[in-house]
Specification:
four-stranded antiparallel β-sheet
Length: about 625
Amino acid sequence: MLERIAAARPTFSAGLIRVADAISRSPELTANIGIVELAQAAGTSVGTVTRFCRVIGLDGYTALRLALATELGQAAADLDADPTGEIEPSASARDTVKLIAASSVNAIRRTATLLDTEALNRLAVAVDEARQVQIFAFGGSAQIARYLADQLVGIGVVTLTSPDVTTAAAHAVTLGPGDVAIAISHSGTAQHALDLLSVARERGAFTAGITSSMHAPLVTEADLTLVTTARSTTARYRGTAGRHAQLFVTDALYVRVSQRRAGQANRLLTLAGQATAPYQTRGEHRAARTDPAPGALTPAVATDAAQRASTPAVVNDPAPGASMLPGASTPVVVTEQASGGILVLDTDQDWATESAVRWSWRPEVEADDPDRPWRCPTDARLRRDASGQQYLLVADSYGLLAMVRYPEGGAAAWSVHAGAAANPHGIELLPGGNIAAAASTGGWVRIYPASQPDATGYAEDRLPGAHEVLWRADDGGLWAIGDTLLVRYEVGGPAAAPTLRRAASHDLPTAGGHDLQPDAGEPGLLWVTTRHGVYRFDTVAGEFVAGAPAWDRPDVKSVGTDRRSGAVLQTTPQPDEECGWGTDRVDFFVGEEPRVSKTLPGARIYRARWFATDSN
């Protein structure tokens, strides 16, 4: 409660400041006196005290007293109470060390209480998926930036930072969509950091700040902010405590990113340990070759609390049947029609084990409802909106189109029943929050005004056999594939009443268009599959390019490239599968050659996608 009051104090009127100061001077007294007594102690009115309670988010004075009493009881049991005075010149070395330690420990504790863990998760996701991360920090904060950059580079995240403003500015202009910029400033007012964060935002990067004040200019400049302790400690060592609070937040961010890419992180940290082993003493050299590298994640740490309790433990050696793909820590999401679920699977695990399932989702529908819109999921892809919130977009051939928050899961954030007769096959999130969808039997491509809670209707274009839609930021177009055509659309109009216009059409090389995906790592190229083959389309030249022989198979239902490892995945129906379109296997290729297949026993997989926003 004292933390909340301190953080909000810069926004208070003079009367509210007097109330805040009276509480901060003697929280024990406030917890034990009535509202009239506090008003008198603050030199203000009972009405001002009541208004103060509401401003800080409480129902009234009773709630304030209860909150303070609870926190004071916890503090009384804490032998490391936060020091409040200066360290006197006469203080002994022992007392000095105790006071500094108490200040740093309590700064971290207060920060842990204040930290927005949802924002932390959003930033970890953005960093994990970023093409590059840049950290802007100067003065004392530059040390924190260097520490965070070194940590992230060690687990494979391309990260740049420089304490030199000119160099940092030169870096900033290379940012763009899909990148992340983080500014670190204790006060939140460092002008150079603010200016460069503004440059990053203008160039389309996702921006974040780390500061000690939730009312600082940095908060309004960034897409999200992680706030450290807002209260100053003793002047002579407040810098140490503040730095420790910043290090605590950057460590939390680093660990969350490491958890998301645990397999890759462990491999890189192990390799780093082996690389530095020759420079250690003889005893340490032996340990480096037999033990995990310093900082490597243990199985317990590598578990994402937002995922199921059965999230796989991290292993350094692949289990039988596990992936042998280079750097293949990117999970795969599959539409599994035997169970009617969406499954996120770990590529470093044996899919025959339950631990391979990192996350799953299916809507709450009545199994005996003949009109239920969810039976055979056809599409699933991970997307992130402008605020950084992640969504899993899903389609089902029985009619459901939905957008589900990830990793929260639960009820859909948006959904529509497009009708079983339409046979929806593809779904995409557009800039601004609207939804594009494709239906094969219905023969249409639609734009739903999902960004507008009260909007109804949709924009539609007839495209026979429409199977998939894909938004491409580089050319600002919505692409769709039908039976015989690859089409680029221009999306216009207001968000509540979007329009859809064909900008270009290209005849497919063979009939029966099916999947449409970006060829991650190859700008301008799209994967295109038909009943007869696999192709790539050059969006700049406007022509199709044949794929490698290993990829060029008939009836490929899904295809995609992992931007991190370069691996290509495909799904094709099993010859004896009862429905004629499902499989229990996903095939992976590396360097245009078959590498490994992962089998999910008893499954009927229709499509598989790399579970990363930059690879599908």
